[in-house]
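The records we work with from here on pair a chain with its fold. These numbers are not coordinates but entries in a learned vocabulary of local backbone shapes. To see the layout at work, look at the sequence and tokens printed below.
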Amino acid sequence: MGEFRIPERHARLLAYARSLTPPAGWKVEISGDEIIVMAGPSVLHQRNLLLVRRQFDAHHPPELMPSENTDLASPNVGKLRNPDLTYIPLSVVESGGNEVPAEQAAIAVEIVSPSNPENDLVGKVRDYPLMDIPLYLLIDPRTGAVTLYSEPTATGYHRQWTGTFGDLVPIPAPFDFGLATDGLVRYPG
């Protein structure tokens, strides 16, 4: 496999983003030529994430570890994303550093933010397949919707499963279980 060179403008953008020190509770992401700085999640957001994580933790393969707010990097497509939850190989820890090659993530899980829903609903739906993330689970407490994207291609995810809070989400291998969503809570208002 040949060595891949990061386009110069993406390398500069990544270097700049890495030099930023956001306030506690904030995170930095890159999508194309845009740096996105977001506030940390609400308690309700965290509660929903905990419900989802407990189920994934009970079904993940032993060679994968859960990680919240880990930088997934795809310099070749100019992306640095930070999902609410991902599962990555334990072997990634041995390489050190603060970033994980995005293509090593087994899934990206996002709980839609009420302050910036377009980031999860549009930006990450566009970016995650380009980053070769095989599964994207999108939970929207604003509307009570759940979407599972799979089979990434250069033009987006080829498959999409859509349901609502209360449905059992069919999570495929390597997890292979039905995610219960009846305990998820919608945002007020």
